[in-house]
Amino acid sequence: MKRALLLLLLGWISAQAISQSNIHFTNPVIYNVLKGNYDPQLYAPAFPVDDPYFIAQHLAQNINPDSLKATLIALQAFHNRNTGSDTISETIGIGAARKWVLKQFDRISEQQSFRLVTGYLEFDIPVCGMERHKNVVAVLPGRDTTDPSCIIIEAHLDSRCKGNCDIDCLALGMEDNGSGVALVIELARIMSRFVYDHTIVFMTVTGEEQGLVGSGAFAVYAKNENIPIKLVQNNDIVGGVICGMTSSPPSCPGFNHVDSTQVRLFSFGGFNSPHKQLSRFIKLQYNEMIKPTATVEMKVSIMAPEDRTGRGSDHIPFRENGFTAMRFCSANEHGDGNVTDPDYHDRQHTIDDILGVDTDGDQEIDSFFVDFNYLARNAVINGNAAAMGALGPESPTISFVSQDGDFLYIEITDPHDYNEYAVAMRTYSNDFDTLFYIHGAKTAAIDLANHDLNIFISAASIDSRGIESLFSEEYLVKITGTSEIEPHDVELFQNKPNPVDETTIISFWVKNPSAVHSAKVIITSTEGKAVKEIPVTVHEGMNEVLFDHGYNMTGTFLYSLYINDQLIDTRKMVFAN
Ligand SMILES: [Zn+2]
């Protein structure tokens, strides 16, 4: 297992060492739109609709499982979508597949009075014997060119078998990642019926399986050309509901377990991570706009790590280039992709990643591995969050926090003077646990229920239509019961989440890192048996350690912080699965 992981990482590093060059859009209008250089009137519909509640309900009612299924059936015909596969043929290979995606975007644009600007993002990088590659892009220009920061909804179009460059095998890639492609095309179809302040980019990328090179090309291009990006929603494996024999941790419960009501949001970082704040925003928008009227309720899980252990996807190059990004992923996936293991029998990254099977012998698939209703629910969560992000206000900042006894005083700075704010607190988990609302002011005194906690606090503006902005930077509040809110020189905090859902973030504060020669976190059983020792390179302020305890381990455990080989503090955590 360890060796396979190392090889996987080495492969990723070597692919990253050579970078994309000669990156440009085949349609120069796309560049101008992304820079804000365009007349929004050219892209305004005859009857503009921008009501957020109407849009949310329209998405929930019109995103169509049959339409998603039709995309997957069409994608099957290309036989193999490996990044190095055929680009000449009109019927098979990655070239035919991306032409087909572009045709769908063009057809959708035509239905909406040509409001979408479509084309390829072309770039050069040697992958599987192929030099030139193309992402497919459809851009819906926003009506507010004063803030051209765009919203990206993406999925990778390429597929693979066991051989990473096998261009002849049957690589239908239905779960990975036909599901994500179907979601992106369906959202382009439904979302382009409406008007948004911000530009929305619908994109399928190539080269995910060979080092995230397609998403990397866009991210690098955006950075070099100063193209502002508000947020990125990456969709990779978003339609499968069946757990394989293997799956990368954090993992699913076991072989053939089915989960069609949970989706996982992966994003980088812990305290004060804009990527985690984006994931929380997506969940909050679902809970407020969609869930109350949903026929099937979804559990939206904010995951602690950026991705599954040893795995990665197309949100990562965006985060690495300074943009806010996250990934949607099914709760259950069919395999950990460890195809070098001779005992690997799961579907992911093999010829078995097919749409389904014929169980009654009538030559028609009647048992599907991708659940189209589940995929549709994930598309609604995506589209709703993207729409609210594209319509909503800008974030405020928390400029001052002070504690006095039971009360926490908060001051907000907001150049737009919305004077309506949501204040979110995070105490035990990756997720907000308390929301307070401020009406008609920028200050508030919040009554605290619990004095023995560290709380992460952030705020969102609310506009006149009731739409929240993304949440601000997080502010650490160390509740002591006195007026002191500054952390001590070194302080170990309660892990989040606790109880632990397989992965958790252990954090500690260091005021003066120059005095720290060594630091480590040691995890032990309550009987004192060492479970894991994690060395930490310390920096000033918040330090975080991601701990993955794996499945099927439950009970109470202890974690201790040692600085310069001296015990600083020990706290308890509970493993719940
Ligand atoms: Zn994938």
List keywords for this structure.
alpha+beta; nine-stranded mixed β-sheet; 10 helices; globular; disordered N terminus; binds zinc ion
Word description of this protein:
By secondary structure, the chain is α+β, with helices and mostly antiparallel strands. The protein has helices spanning 2-17, 28-34, 52-62, 65-76, 93-111, 174-191, 213-224, 274-290, 316-320, 372-391; strands spanning 21-25, 117-127, 130-140, 150-156, 200-205, 229-235, 262-266, 299-302, 325-330, 356-357, 367-368, 397-404, 407-413, 420-426, 434-439, 443-447, 454-461, 475-478, 490-492, 496-501, 503-510, 519-525, 530-535, 541-548, 554-563, 566-576. A 9-stranded mixed beta sheet has the order 1-2-3-5-4-6-9-7-8, sandwiched between helices. Helix 3 (52-62) runs antiparallel to helix 10 (372-391) and helix 6 crosses helix 10 (372-391). It is globular. The two termini are 22 Å apart. Bound molecules: zinc ion. The site of zinc ion has 6 residues, from helix 6. Zinc ion binds next to helix 6.
SSE inventory with pairings:
Elements: H1 2-17, E1 21-25, H2 28-34, H3 52-62, H4 65-76, H5 93-111, E2 117-127, E3 130-140, E4 150-156, H6 174-191, E5 200-205, H7 213-224, E6 229-235, E7 262-266, H8 274-290, E8 299-302, H9 316-320, E9 325-330, E10 356-357, E11 367-368, H10 372-391, E12 397-404, E13 407-413, E14 420-426, E15 434-439, E16 443-447, E17 454-461, E18 475-478, E19 490-492, E20 496-501, E21 503-510, E22 519-525, E23 530-535, E24 541-548, E25 554-563, E26 566-576
Parallel strand pairs: 4-5, 4-6, 6-9, 7-8
Antiparallel strand pairs: 1-2, 2-3, 3-5, 7-9, 10-11, 12-13, 13-16, 14-15, 14-17, 17-18, 19-21, 20-21, 21-24, 22-23, 22-25, 25-26
Helix pairs in contact: 3-10, 4-6, 4-10, 6-10, 8-10
Bound molecules: zinc ion.
